Amino acid sequence: MKQEHMERILKIGVQLSAERDLNRLLDQLLTCVMDLANCDAGTLYLLDGDVLRFKIMRNHTMQVYSGGDGKDPDMMPVPLKRENMCAMALLEGRTLSVDDVKESREYDFSGPIRYDALTGYHTRSMLAVPMCNRQGEKLGVLQLINAMDDSGTVCPFPEDMALVLESVASQAAITIQNVRYIQDIKELFRSFVRVMSSAIDERSPYNGSHTRHMAAYGNRFLDYLNEKAVSAGKEALFSAARREELLMSIWLHDIGKLVIPLEVMDKPARLLPKQHTAFLHRMELLRMQGEIDRLSGRITGAELEDLAGRTRRAEELVEAANTAGFLSDETLAALEELSSRTFTDRDGQKKPWLSPEEYAMLSIRKGTLSQEERNVMESHVTATGKLLSQIRFSQDFSHVREWASSHHEFLNGSGYPRHLTAEEIPEEVRILTILDIFDALTADDRPYKPGMPVERALSVLKIMAEKEGKLDPGLVRLFGESRCWEEL
User: Fold this and answer.
1) Of 334, 392, 421, 474, which has the most beta carbons under 10 Å away?
2) Arithmetic mean of pLDDT, 16-21
């Protein structure tokens, strides 16, 4: 092997080992090998079961460059049969060379001949190099076409080129396998994250699509931001790595809800079920005692009718207040009056129509959670941080814990749990927060409120950004422009 070949092989090895994207790796590999062999065309196949699939095609004369974008060339796969030269090279694990395909009777070259007839190309010399790793596992084939001499004339491939290309193919096979391992590990982790996210959402009959919706909105919103930047002549704002890290944060942002009690997370009404049952039982007891008092002559029929009417109206008030999204001053005043009513039970003890605990819960102005319950619910972001601290994230996902556990922080410092301010909140968290609030406002599966129309939700976001200073005004405006929710 010539010194210059050895140096180029080393350079190619360094170049390939630095690449972690499989599509770019395959593209670089074929380009490097074609340059090293000084040939006009080439194809890279990867083994898939019992066929070789086209992954990358290059033909300088025909100006064909297919497969580098991750989409396989639209070509039928090559069966692993001995009459196919590329398949034979892989089956026998050795490099095969043909000086002129039209004169060869050893292999079936009907495919290249048909291609030549359709395109006017002239396939002559061909070299097929198998790609196998150190364990002998077959990965694919490099097929090179039409070697050229120094004057650019098509010629047979030099005999010493086989050893050169075999060395490159061996390095490439190891790199391809390593990249595949990395991809498999990443996909395993992504699958685990999606399963965990589904477990969180499925744990409750409410809010069952929240994270999935956010991920879909996020994907489209990031597409919009990138397209807008590119159309303005700038670089895309979110690289593939930055985008994946943010989407991972979205999938994991609510993992802390795994430790929140369901009676808090799923609370559809202000009163707990046992409190609600106790109140209704108390009203029924009042009516029964009234009936006994009427039969005993202690009250009149009219007084009994008045008592029954007042208990029914009390029930109606409690039912309405129990599930209302927001309580008016009038309703709160009526609840206060109800809480002041008392009755005397059969033991002679004075009891309230509405217990202090029931009154406290029913008097929650907005939503269904008491302050104590709200504190428990809000603790899910702290729990998210603690749970994610147990995961050893790679460098590519080094910000996931920070971003995921900060999605309730506001730019004006009024968020939780750390009360961060604008200069402490990165753009990724600002986006995550907007997605979270938008889906919470529009969701129609929440136990404590109906979903808002989209335009009203956008107005709420605008108020939070421009009047309250909680959200990023620019991102809120771009989010509204993107209409990223419409395809869902």
Assistant:
1) 334
2) 64
Question: Is the CB of residue 16 less than 8 Å from the CB of residue 29?
Answer: yes
Say whether pLDDT at 244 is over 80. Answer: yes
Question: Distance between CA 26 and CA 240 in Å, rounded?
Answer: 18
Count Cα neighbours of 130 within 13 Å in the Cβ-side half-sphere.
20
pLDDT digits (tens, 9 = 90+) for 59-96: 999 998 888 777 788 888 999 988 899 999 999 989 99
Instruction: Please give the average per-residue pLDDT across 259-281, as a whole number.
Output: 91
SS3 157: coil
What pLDDT is attached to residue 18? 60
The number of CA neighbours under 13 Å toward the Cβ of 92 is 13
**What's the CA gap between 302 and 310, in Å, rounded?**
12
Q: Three-state DSSP class for 120? A: coil
Query: Average model confidence (pLDDT) for the chain?
Result: 89
Three-state secondary structure call for residue 235: coil
One domain, residues 132 and 277 = no
* Length of the chain counted residue by residue: 488
* pLDDT at residue 345 greater than cutoff 60: yes
Task: Tally DSSP H helices, then E strands, for the chain.
Answer: 18, 10
- pTM for this model (two decimals): 0.69
What does DSSP assign to residue 158?
A: P
Query: Is 196 part of any domain?
Result: no
Q: For the beta carbon of residue 436, count every other beta carbon within 10 angstroms.
A: 19
User: Which residues span the domain enclosing 418?
Assistant: 210-263+375-482
Q: Are 419 and 413 in contact (CB under 8 A)?
A: yes
Distance CA(179)–CA(27), nearest Å, equals 14
In angstroms, the CA 216 to CA 371 distance is 32
Show Cβ contacts of residue 427 under 8 Å, excluding neighbours closer than 6 positions: 472, 475
DSSP element (H, E) containing 334 = helix 329-340
Measured CA to CA, the distance from residue 405 to residue 427 in angstroms comes to 14
Convert the pLDDT of each residue in 84-127 to its tens digit.
999 999 999 899 999 999 888 888 888 888 888 888 899 999 99
Q: H or E stretch including 131?
A: strand 126-132
3-state secondary structure of 254: coil
Please check whether residue 318 lies inside any domain of the structure: yes
Pair (25, 58) in one structural domain: yes
* Predicted confidence (pLDDT) at residue 17 exceeds the cutoff of 70: no
* Predicted confidence (pLDDT) per residue in 410-461, tens digit: 999 999 999 999 999 999 999 999 999 999 999 876 655 667 899 999 999 9
d(C-alpha 105, C-alpha 108), whole Å:
7
**Residue of 371, 334, 337, 339 lying closest to 358 (CA atoms):** 339
